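User: Can you model how zinc ion sits in this protein?
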Amino acid sequence: MAIPDYLICLNCEAACYVFEWRDDEVTEAYCELCTSEEIDQFLTQEDFDALIEA
Ligand SMILES: [Zn+2]
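Assistant: Here's the modeled complex, given as structure tokens:
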């Protein structure tokens, strides 16, 4: 899996470009909009779409 261009912050649903990605996982993330740093709160666009459709 390629490194995503951005992650979606579940807290405010903004695209976040400040993150670390290793072994197909988010290791660190930061949302500039709501200052969330909980990596559990970030999804790739793909995972976010899957969540919305579920
Ligand atoms: Zn946010």
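A couple of observations from the model: Helices lie at 45-53. The first helix runs from residue 45 to 53.
User: Helpful, thanks.
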